[in-house]
Amino acid sequence: MIKTALIQIRNQQDSSRQTDSIERQAKRAALATGCSLLVMPELHNGDYFCQTEDTNRFNSAEPIPGPTTDWLGSIAAKYRLVIVGSVFERRGPGVYHNTAVVLDADGSLAGVYRKMHIPDDPGFYEKFYFTPGDLGFEPVDTAVGRLGVLVCWDQWFPEAARLMALAGAELLLYPTAIGWDLNDDAAEQARQLDAWMTVQRGHAIANGLPLLACNRVGFESAPGATDPKDGIQFWGNSFICGPQGEILARAPSDQESLLVAEIDLTRNEQVRRIWPFLRDRRIDAYADLLKRWRD
Fold first, then answer.
1. Residue 242 has pLDDT above 90, yes or no
2. What is the signed CA dihedral for 47, 48, 52, 58, rounded to 10 degrees?
3. Can you list the positions of beta strands (E) in 70-165?
4. Per-residue pLDDT at 179 exceeds 90
5. Which of 1, 48, 66, 199 is the most buried (most CB within 10 A)?
6. In this model, does residue 13 exceed pLDDT 90?
7. Which keywords describe this protein according to UniProt (predicted)?
8. Domain at 2-290: CATH architecture
């Protein structure tokens, strides 16, 4: 049994306030609730800068190891937490990644995952900033277990979750930055949120694994916007579900939250015995999945 926590936060508009808020929540997660695993949203150190294309934003990228992994490592060691964070990685001149980092409970860098699926949609111009990941879908071994770490847009791809499961992941984790366009009506917004939760619960069910999705919350205006609706309303709703897709905890859509839930990893094996999806896969018939389209 492990106790897990998600930090659902909004952009504080100031880097020191942002890091102070994260540290307070990490301390609370460890000391007040007894958590041993902490997950944060995508690009949690500041604003979601991908709403526009601006070459000056590359100046905020950093190496790994670097300032953010050093900072998170110190928190992890102080409170004996495994921490999953997010970094705008500068790998080399002109090569940048959207990278999840895993700090083990002793503060060491246990592993990294570079976001594989990179979106390019209105308000989410990530292809301008991020080179697609090249580390594959490899879980990270930590003091709390083998973590299948993916990032945001990866949430929509069943192949990513399945490959993590086949490599022995015991949990699926998604640092996330997703929200609504305020020009969409309430019905469309409801459909989007429901689809987001449903597809991820489906990954949990299909692979017999618990899943943790940690999202941003709050409205962030697009840089230079004159229309008050020009921006993203990050919809929060961070959640933790079990290996049958059952919701164990869910955060609100409009508030910061420290979301906590206990997960019994022994249930993974029990669920897979009654729903043996991995046993019944027809791997002899799936070759066309390697094609872009079946012509």
1. yes
2. 80
3. 82-92, 95-103, 109-114, 120-121, 124-125, 140-142, 145-149
4. yes
5. 48
6. no
7. Acyltransferase, Hydrolase, Transferase
8. 4-Layer Sandwich (3.60)
